[in-house]
Each structure stands twice: as C-alpha cells, then as structure tokens.
Amino acid sequence: MKKVLITGFEPFGGASINPALEAVKKLDGAELDGGVIVTCEVPVTRYDALKAISEAIEAHQPSYVITVGQAAGRNAITPERVAINMDDFRIPDNGGNQPIDEPIDEEGPAAYFSTLPIKAITRKLQESGIPCQVSNTAGTFVCNHVFYGIQHFLRDTDVGHGFIHIPLLPEQAAATDKPSMSLDTIVEGLRLAAQATLENKKDISEGAGQIC
To answer: Which residue positions are annotated as catalytic (predicted)?
Structure first.
C-alpha cells in the first residue's frame, strides 16, 4: 500500500492556530483507494522545517509528499506550480530568522516545478464542489522554502512532491475581510488531493524537476 505523507505547519506570526496543522491532525491514518495518509507536524523555522520533513520521509518512505501551508487572502485550495530559490521573509519565522533576498541554496537551480499532478488535483476538487485553482507563486516565506528545499532533497528520487496552500479558517478570518474555508472542507480537499495524486502519477522526467 502506497503512503502519501502530508505535512502541516504549526501556528506562526502570533497566531494560535494554523489550518494546515489542524487538517493533518484529522488526516493521519486516513485510508485512500490504493494508499494511506501519514502526517508530520512542521515548525515554522526554515532549517528546522526541512529537517522535520526529511526525517519524516526517511521514516515513512512515502511514494508522495504533499506539504501544506496557509495563505491568508486566498479563497480556494491552491496547488502550487513552482518553488523559487529565494528567501525574502516579510516577518521573522518562529526561530527569529528574517532573511532578505537570500538564496535557499547558493548552488541550486533557480526553481523547481511541482512533481504532483496539479491539474488533476485541481479538477478532482472542483468536480467535488471544492474551490481549487493552480497557483503560480508560493511566496518567499517558509512555505516556499519548504517547497524548494524538499524538491531539492528529493531531486534524485522517484518520490513525487508538491506544495498546496489553503485558506484561513473562519475563526481566523472573523475579525478581518479575508476569505475563509471550513476545516472539514479543507480536510476533504486535501484527502481528495492525495487520492488524485495516487490516481494520476506524474512522470517527473516530463516537464517537472528543476529550472536551470
């Protein structure tokens, strides 16, 4: 049975909750058609985040990895297309790091494409009535750092990986004008994303991997 590792970040920026972490708590052990979901909690600290996920990959030996983070202001679940080799943090991470215009890997490529079937994921969620659209920017905070760093970590393997951003929860957005999505919808969306990944294996030698 194939494993899909889904990771979720802890709260950051003074918040008490992160929908990514709340979702993975509910997804751990969930059965898929042909697979099972395993999960990992991730610190919002750039190097510790990569360490936590790489250790989870080594422990679980998944066929696919879906890293997940919140994106305030988005009204849909958004599979990311590309990670760029740049850290430019608008706020400090939870370790107090705030790099400005620093490469993630000075010897790495400019960017990496997702090796998840992002169009198939988007289609499956939309067909299920869940707002979903492909995004072409993962930002330059810890989400992008993880997206790029794990793609780099997995570059010589056949493990598929990509990043998905999710909206805020209603309780996070209640005092703002930002859109939100219920936790149940986010959980189901991520479950469907994992199922679509199993059903639509992407050949990582075709149009994926690094951008020189």
So the answer is: 80, 143, 165
Sort 153 into a burial class: Cβ within 10 Å, 0-12 / 13-18 / 19+: middle
Domains of the chain: 2-199 (3.40.630.20)
Q: Is 80 a catalytic residue?
A: yes
Locate the DSSP E strands across 10-77. 31-32, 35-42, 64-70
Q: Determine which one of 80, 145, 152, 161 is catalytic.
A: 80
- Which among 145, 152, 161, 165 is annotated as catalytic? 165
Span 101-147, pLDDT tens digits: 999 999 999 999 999 999 999 999 999 999 999 999 999 999 999 99
With beta carbons less than 8 A apart as the criterion, state whether 61 and 164 touch.
Answer: no
